[in-house]
Amino acid sequence: MRSPHLLDRRRTALVLIDVQERYRTVLHGWDRVAAACDLLLQGAQVLGVPTVVTEQYPRGLGHTAEELSRRFPRGVRLVEKQSLSCCGAPQFVEALAALGTQQVLVAGIETHACVNQTVHDLLEAGYQVHLAADATSSRLPGDVAPAWAKMLAAGMLPTTSEQALLELVETAAAPEFRGLQVLLRDAKR
């Protein structure tokens, strides 16, 4: 018996929100966020979890940071948007719906803006939403806590990148466990 509050790779999609080049020098904790997002991208690929990536106005903010975009799996769904909520972009809603998942693991930026609004809209649409704390931040540290409080009150489930990947692999007997274990070990260096 497994709790429905745990991530299940057969029901989960990873959503990476707007980790774009222009934020590199202004985001609080950029290195931490980029490393956690990188771990999630690699782990999702090992576990066969589909990924949807968004870019907010890439003409002005640049594309996804190179250290992450090089990790995109084949067939990644990349959605350009101008709405703060990813759900404001019909291509995003369609891409996520096409996957047929019920759980969404969210990572990206900014916590109080695009992440917050996307989480609320996904919850409203009936998805179970898990947010990786180490894989999100804002430009101003003071904007993070109020956004977390609001998302928690709405029903978001908090996690970390490692916790999420361990839930997704579920057992050390899984054929992917060893590869995931190596990723987690290397991420701690």
Describe the 3D structure:
This protein is of the alpha/beta class and 189 residues long. The protein has a 6-stranded parallel β-sheet, with helices on both faces. It has one domain (12-187): Isochorismatase-like (Rossmann fold). Helix 5 packs parallel to helix 6. Helix 1 links the parallel strand 1 (12-17) and strand 2. The N and C termini lie far apart (35 Å). The protein is built from 8 helices and 6 strands; from the N terminus they run βαβααβαβαβαβαα. Helix content is 43%, strand content 20%.
Structure summarized in a few sentences:
This protein is an alpha/beta fold and 189 residues long. 43% of the residues lie in helices and 20% in strands. It is built from eight helices and six strands, in the order E-H-E-H-H-E-H-E-H-E-H-E-H-H.
